[in-house]
Amino acid sequence: MRARDLAVKLPLVRLDDPVARAVRVMADEGLPGLVIVDHRDIPQFVLRGTQVLRLLVSQYSDDPALARAVDEASADLFWSEVGARSIDDCLAPEEARRATVPRDATVLEVAITMSRLRTPIVAVVNDEGQIRGCITLNRLLTSTELPEA
Prior knowledge:
- It is a single chain.
- By secondary structure, this protein is an alpha/beta fold.
- It is built from 9 helices and 6 strands, in the order αβαββαααααβαββα.
- The strands form 2 sheets. A 3-stranded mixed sheet has the order 1-2-3.
- α2 runs antiparallel to α3.
- InterPro entries: CBS_dom, CBS_dom_sf.
């Protein structure tokens, strides 16, 4: 089985999309993370769900005292402040990785990429680097023959 056989189409999220849209796509689709593409549909980053959450709290995460100073009512609405900012504005590049595999990658190559990059989602790309689908960890595991326990 090859990556192209496992890849499924998922909603694309772009660098210039608002953080609120990224969070909504991940929540609505039940995704473990997101593939962030540029205007040419070339994957730039793959973010785990916790990294997407960090986009929401980025203004508070470096200063725990600031988070404690926010009252409960405001803390419940923290995402409304960040929601309009773009992913590119909130993203810390050192935390994001470009997790891609070619369409003809084997299941083992996909598993190794996910393991090495510690990501639950990879982008499947064509020869030009454009996204052709995604493989989630769940899809990988349920599509392969696992040994009986």
